[in-house]
Batch of 3 targets.
Target 1
Amino acid sequence: MTHCPRGGTFRVLVVDDSPDNADSLSLLLTLSGYDVRTAYTAAAALSLARGERPDCLISDINMPGMDGCELGRLIRAEFPAVKLVAVSGRSDTAQTNRVREAGFDYQFTKPTDPTTILEVLAMLQDVKDLAESTKLIAGETKQLLTAVKNEVREVKQEVKELKQEVKELKQEMREARQAEDEPPPTG
């Protein structure tokens, strides 16, 4: 697996029915440090997604057979955390609405500036890294809280034992005073 410049691994699935478009974007992303898989049909992309569990799907929209919108709906239903990026030759209102309704997080019109795609992926990587860091911190916090609870339990037990010892010492002192206050036996 390739590691991203930011650290960690960020898996991207690129799907486009134009092999030239798919391969050139995949090459750019690979050279930029992303772990990339490529598909030329939506059905192949869905199969890859089920096996690879990508962090991000970059999909062409207008493809024969299953189009990118249907692919996006299926991916969103199975893998809600996957970020969806649509790339399409059309940018009319109907297409934009279809893409949004399919659950895509971002949409761009071809030709797309590669820098824009890289900036979006960098942002998504940052969000993923932040979520993972937060999860680690939450786990560490839970462990610390458990350790503190155990320490408190031990201290409470020690305090209980000390109270018992103090009670016993007080009783011994009372008995000793009583013994001193009693007149000596006559006999």
Note: The first strand starts at residue 11 and ends at 15.
Target 2
Amino acid sequence: QAAAHEIAMIKALVPRVQQAIGLGGAILLLAAALFLVRAVALAGQVNTALGGWDTPFAIEFVADGIGASLVLLAAVIGLAALLFQRSDADPAAASPALVPLVHAFLAGTCGAFLTGDLFNLYVWFEVVLIASLGLLVLGKGRRHLDGALTYFVLNVVGTLFVLMGVA
């Protein structure tokens, strides 16, 4: 019985730990966005190429004034959304997938704002679409599943057009 009580206590603690880690991640994103805005204000534009390749083949990120400002805006909105989710104002039941999906959505959004080429814009766009589809199905009701199916079909068509445009 003592072991069952300890397991119940751990299960009750996990959502709070997840929310705290998610909130900490959102605060770190806000701090990084502020740092990026400052770096862009000082340098005019910040470029980085990942993967150890030169720019035609590397994953390139370019931060200019607009991109850095949009990342800052996304960070503020993401932090506000996670704070609202923790409040008593949201009557929806908590899901263990909510915080990771919100962070995936933020990662895709910020990646799309900072990408340096069209193909990687498409990749970040797909990350946003997958995370938003996951957020849609969290409701588990018939209405949510119908909306998610409609969203999925429309996004597959839209994704095909974006991919053809990139090609």
Note: Strands lie at 46-50, 59-63.
Target 3
Amino acid sequence: MKKRMGFYVSGSASRIFSFYQKYSVSDYPFVFIFYDGENDQVEQRLIETFGNKVFIFKNAEKLTGKKLSDSISKILYNKFIEFKADYLFVFGDKILKPILVDNFKNRIINFHPSILPAFPGLNAIDQALMSSVQILGNTAHFIDNDIDTGPIIMQSVISRRAYKNYEDVLGLQIPMLKKIWLLLEEDKITVENNKVVIDTKEEE
């Protein structure tokens, strides 16, 4: 039985568009996409591409900061329950709150554009470029109640010499998402003592 996956996306939602340009919805079905970016063109493209599985956050009260994060976390909590989701893939930019994170522990996966624990938080690629590191990349991790500190699932890297633009880093998240999705489908990702264990044994 396929796992029930959801997405939380912000901004241009470019990762989800890139993923489904490469892979089909029938092979990687999801139960909902929640978008909070307030960009009319992105909203329209999401709905045209994915139909009634898309839910748009309309910030009628013009919430900011903690109140905005609280509101989005409550909505995602309700979507998790409504759609009986197994996992949530996060390409969104708001901090998710304990009402969501604590109730769905080790079921919410963030894709962060740095090799954690280096360069957590905002503008991670820029942070790396301003440093002396010679490797850039991404980290997929389960979300906890701190910033980019949850159990690490997978990382991808690119050399500084090979870097030309943000997409060189962000594009590596697409094959990561596919690999993690397939591992979750096969129940090969577990968390023990706050560390991810991936079962790499082949079934006989």
Note: The mean pLDDT is 96.
